[in-house]
Amino acid sequence: MAKKQFKAESKRLLDLMINSIYTHQEIFLREIISNASDAIDKLAYQALTDEKVGLSREDFAIDLRADKKLGILTVSDNGIGMDKEEMESNLGTIARSGSLQFKQGLEKTDDVDIIGQFGVGFYSAFMVADTVTVISKKYGSDEAWQWQSSGADGYTITPCEKTTVGTDVIMKLKADTDDEQYSRFLEQYQLQALVKKYSDYIRYPIRMEMEKSRVKAGTEDKETPEYETYTELTTLNSMVPLWQRNKKDVKPEEYDAFYKDKFYDYEAPLSSLHFSVEGAVDYKALLYIPAKAPYDYYTKDYKKGLQLYSSGVLIMDKCEDLVPEHFRFVRGVVDTQDLSLNISREMLQHNRQLTLIESNLEKKIKTELMRMQKDEREKYEKFFEAFGRQLKYGVVSDYGAHKELLQDLLMFWSSAQGKLITLKEYVEAMPEGQKHIYYATGENRDRLSQLPQTERLKQKGYDILYMTEDVDEFIPRTLNTYLEKEFRNISTDDLDLATEEEKKAEEETTKQWQPTLDFVKQTLGDQVKSVVISTELGSHPVCLVPEGGMSFEMVKYFRKMNPDTPIPDEKTMQLNPEHPAVQALRDHMDGDKAKAETYAKVLYAQGLILADLPIENASDYTDLVCGLMQ
To answer: Among candidates 443, 549, 546, 540, which has minimal Cα distance to 487?
Structure first.
């Protein structure tokens, strides 16, 4: 029979289908199996209204056969089949889909689930095969037909013999090269893995004769038993995904086992969310909150995303657009038919449905985390230890666009309670008269607890939140307020503790001490921007605070991020007029000026130590202290 040309014409178009649309060669098996599933769906639907079909859902199956000697892979189904006209129409015209036409002719039901929509998946077989042969017999017909093609040069359709209804897709694989190993698609472990990855939830069994081994009969009791190989028809796919089952019928250990197997984690998740949504977009989801962060989680190499399925077929392993960045730790699957896929079913087209799913998942995740925080505090604290930094990044990213959503999930160390607390818990525990949320930033809690400013706050019964991560420096600045309470950094901001009378008394004290303040400023020169009196230092003699609102921790952060960029860090020196050391400095100004200068320099160095800042010259400081001891 004469060879026919593809109606979609040119070699260039077929080359595009094979080489440009699909990213991975292994996708071909998913596409061929999906077509087989579609064909079975059509006959299964007909069986619902036509008793002559005589088949139930349990009678349908998809079979794989791999012939290593001949280099042939065959995918067979017992579905609706094709006659000559349908072969001509569906296989002879690129980008024509019988599945799409069938789907458009049906009302949406739970019994029919057509995957194929574009009519190009079949041609993905040419990525791995030199020649593709399709043998098919349509239900209700006595004739069988063979379609065969070696690519863009055309195809032939000839009559053939086939005893059973259905379709066989026979692929003669290309020869291996240095760059490509096509024979791997004939290995049973590779086929098993690809079915598990892409087609595990096709609703019909995908079967293959698997070679297995067993102890040879009569040798069981031997010291070294003998083994023999045998073949067994094995179902490769699970068929019914966990998320398609009724939630009340799934045990907690089943959720955990699915998570461990699917996401390669030896530790059970902290929580699982299983739900379905119907409305503007229909989908089912099974989400997990892991117990720990992967080793590369906080690196640029980590890729977020949920697995996206369409009718049980894996479309994307990590669909980034389904989960917001601040919840990138969530793992799980989403199964929907309502998303528009591109021509290869491998990528998503951004659309309103995708945005709706992402928004809904965000709310579900937030609700679950709040539930854990309230009802399973120990679990939530374990979660926050692993992923709290991610929530903090989410607060400060995008100019604080997500701060309202995330602020109630944050936790910080409470100096008063000695444990992690939420911002709401801090505010609820504030004593009467406290107007602000006080916090301190630094490398560790022990250092922060020694800051001079903490003493008076603790005396008044005010709690202090210790923030010890780099990102913490930006959290209060982004939130600005919480429940109408303003954040105050105890190292940079006015603590607003003094009464009007105390403020007036401090102004008077400053006038009396002005000569001493001028003397210290003159002694230290450019090392400090200014020297002032403070009544908020408790039992400490001195404190250094940054000028301009940028804390010392923020200066450290920016210097670490941009070591070549000069970052100003002007300091104000605060002196406690009630402290004996400061009074001794003032007393020596008129009698022993040199010693007074030494006192000023020592106090400055002590201020650096208390602020966890480096002393410019440790040797000079040692000499100063030793000189006072002589």
So the answer is: 549
